[in-house]
């Protein structure tokens, strides 16, 4: 049995930088990966989807080019090229991760599947067919999540796609039925609609992106439908079956029953923790009923010396949160810090076109918690930059404390919504109030300039 100071299981967005940092501090560190270095974000998530979404945006711009007075003679979609371009970008990022780990003295990269064989011992089924046993005082679990497949009658009998398998399809699906109406469904739905599929989205909740305010969800539904996607909210898929032409989904909306047919079906109904294979019963690490590892605010599990990072411990499931998790652990271990996940900011951006940039609380959360707020809201059609560039869909919205003018949250659904949201995120961190932003000088004519106008709406 080889002894290490630290073992990192999974090379996700937190585990990889943590392994390098621990080694630089002189800890003999092993990082174990069962698939590709870099984890979900690089190989199946953010990087490939955003690379392909960029191609779909070009297609959409060409399709509507006459809006800007540019006439063209039509275009064709080369999905094999788009997929190859995506693969090149993924490979570039994956190789970068490999180089970073290999060039760090003190890190041993082990390819294989890890499981606990004892409290602090890890058994690895190596890719080369062998077995290896390692031990360390400190173990960091960063094994992420995988697509959750709901138990719908008939689903297991049809060839369904997930966000992972979909990315390697080299023929555009004629009709794409998507189960789920959140980040993955909307980003991928718009992507394939723009590449030529007839997309149908089925969401059980009464609105798309159910955690968001109703006005935000309504704008998203509107622009998805404007591009041709059919959206079925408050709808349950009761049964799925194979037909000669592809797939049929029996749905019910309220009391209305109907059947949707399509050539392909994508399951985007959330993700489940990748903890089952870890054999956590051999340690004192506790999970919830869904398999998400339970941690305290310092990311310590119930077993001393064992930590969990990223999606494996449950949401928020974002790359930047997994990355921040590793900083919390590292600084608490080595810099005598007392960092916690409790009060950190959780920004996020959904990369539909236009984007949804979000930070802080929503209007409905403020209402639920009885926080006195005022709402600033400005349509993108009132924003000079948006009018000039012809991108007027959506709005900027901020949740402001009614008594103190402190910014509590924002939703920017509009072009560059994520970038504009980040400006408000910085303001929230620095305690800059809505009234200060109202009079701040921004360069003209940026989208950011309209933050003046956004907060002027509070004067009315
Ligand atoms: C389609 C899609 C799009 C996304 N887009 C975005 C986005 O735009 N922005 C954003 O912030 N987030 C996005 N996410 C979410 C983001 O990818 C994850 O939150 C992020 O990757 C964090 O992952 P992680 O560090 O927890 O682990 P992961 O990156 O999932 O890595 C876990 C690693 O552990 C390995 N592993 C698992 N079990 C074992 C084992 N037993 N032994 C050894 N290795 C093991 C896995 O192979 C994997 O490589 C997206 C996700 C998906 C699916
Ligand atoms: N841009 C980004 O940051 C980004 C992009 C993609 C994914 N992600 C991350 O990946 C995670 C997974 O994304 P996701 O969109 O799969 O999951 P999600 O958990 O965000 O949403 C799942 C959706 O599916 C619906 N649903 C559940 N069961 C259903 C069923 N049987 N039929 C129809 N609808 C059903 C839910 O009501 C929910 O709206 C997210 O938590 C997110 O953090 C982030």
From TrEMBL:
Cofactor annotation comment:
Binds 1 FAD per subunit.
Name the active site residues. 444
Instruction: Report residues binding FAD.
Output: 50, 311
Against PANTHER family, the record matches this protein to: MERCURIC REDUCTASE (PTHR43014)
Family to which the UniProt record says this protein belongs: Belongs to the class-I pyridine nucleotide-disulfide oxidoreductase family.
Q: Where is the FAD/NAD(P)-binding domain?
A: 5-322
Q: List the disulfide bonds in this chain.
A: 41-46
Name of the protein this chain belongs to: Pyruvate/2-oxoglutarate dehydrogenase complex dihydrolipoamide dehydrogenase (E3) component
- Describe the location of the Pyridine nucleotide-disulphide oxidoreductase dimerisation domain by residue ranges: 346-453
Give the residues the record marks as binding NAD(+): 180-187, 203, 270
**Statement: the UniProt record of this protein carries the keyword ATP-binding:** no
